[in-house]
């Protein structure tokens, strides 16, 4: 079935926000140019497994970062400061007036990307971040391709190149809810992470890497989210590796009564888990990415990108039946 592209609204810069809908191998997805955001993931043409809204204004008013590709540096950089290319760079302070979050106030999650290609089973979007954007050096060209594969699987490939040394770390910021209920408290989450990065009061990593054992960040066995959320905010990075790996399973999500389960596979060394507190726990964000504040902590994964290199993240959402 050919893609259906529609006008979804007007971006703050005056450009048209488009939404592309494709169906292949069973699932249907819809992606909009604002934030290159995944609006719907329907396994069989029915209810979506990711939260979204019917109108563009709702995304602006209530759905910041919903389903978006956030960057050029996803998550947080403490003090909005990092050494890049041997120079101290001061970045946008859009998190609590002190730190950088998701690439700054004009990060890719709120920008209007362009549809570069749309086919029967895929849609690709591109954006260009100029040199100095949000304080980062280097003009950065980024492309994300959403492709439905047999399985069914939704594959998301993010690629970027730069013309000067910079930082590069993107994440897909969808909120999952497998049942359509008012809370994800009954969802069961499994993550094969042995360690996590503790954070301070501003959710900036302290630099320590600690075992998950005997903590509320231990998801090595299927764990009910409600029990862990009752012990405090979950907005933390779980450590899967110290560098990118071949694409492998990094999380499994299921729920009683759900018609589908979800396995997330990724190349990334970290998985940020956010329990959707500000949404009343209606959805959970599971974001493969580098570790937060990596440029400021020796031993954390390398976030640098140099001219001649290609940043490439592969993340796959594998849809299955429970059991």
Automatic annotation (TrEMBL):
Origin superkingdom: Bacteria
GO molecular-function terms, A-Z: aldose 1-epimerase activity; carbohydrate binding
Gene3D superfamilies listed in its UniProt record: 2.70.98.10
UniProt organism field: Paracoccus zhejiangensis
Coiled-coil parts of chain: none
Protein name: Galactose mutarotase
Family: Belongs to the aldose epimerase family.
Keywords: Carbohydrate metabolism, Isomerase
GO biological process, one term: glucose metabolic process
PANTHER family registered for this protein in UniProt: ALDOSE-1-EPIMERASE, GALACTOSE MUTAROTASE
Keyword presence, Isomerase: yes
Cited SUPFAM superfamilies: Galactose mutarotase-like
């Amino acid at each position: 079935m050919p893609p259906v592209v529609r006008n979804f609204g007007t971006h703050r810069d005056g450009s048209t926000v488009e939404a592309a809908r494709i169906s292949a191998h069973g699932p249907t997805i819809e992606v909009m140019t604002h934030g290159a955001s995944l609006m719907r993931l329907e396994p069989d043409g029915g209810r979506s497994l990711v939260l979204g809204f019917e109108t563009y204004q709702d995304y602006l008013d209530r759905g910041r970062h919903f389903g978006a590709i956030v960057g050029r540096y996803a998550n947080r950089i403490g003090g909005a400061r990092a050494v890049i290319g041997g120079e101290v760079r001061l970045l946008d302070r859009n998190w609590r007036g002190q730190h950088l979050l998701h690439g700054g106030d004009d990060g890719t999650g709120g920008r209007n990307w362009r549809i570069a290609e749309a086919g029967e089973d895929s849609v690709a979007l591109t954006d260009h971040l100029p040199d100095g954007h949000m304080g980062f050096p280097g003009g950065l060209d980024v492309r994300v391709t959403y492709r439905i594969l047999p399985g069914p699987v939704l594959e998301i490939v993010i690629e970027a190149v730069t013309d000067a040394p910079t930082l590069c770390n993107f994440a897909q910021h969808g909120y999952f809810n497998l049942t359509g209920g008012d809370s994800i408290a009954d969802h069961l989450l499994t993550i094969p992470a042995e360690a996590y990065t503790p954070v301070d009061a501003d959710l900036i990593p302290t630099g320590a890497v600690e075992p998950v054992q005997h903590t509320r960040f231990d998801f090595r066995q299927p764990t009910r989210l409600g029990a862990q959320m009752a012990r405090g905010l979950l907005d933390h990075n779980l450590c899967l590796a110290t560098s990118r790996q071949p694409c492998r399973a990094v999380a499994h999500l299921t729920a009683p009564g759900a018609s589908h389960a979800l396995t997330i596979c990724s190349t990334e060394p970290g998985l940020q888990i956010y329990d959707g507190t500000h949404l009343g726990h209606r959805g959970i964000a599971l974001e493969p990415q580098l570790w937060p504040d990596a440029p400021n902590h020796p031993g954390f994964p390398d976030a640098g990108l140099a001219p001649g290199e290609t940043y490439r993240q592969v993340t796959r959402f594998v849809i299955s039946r429970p059991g």
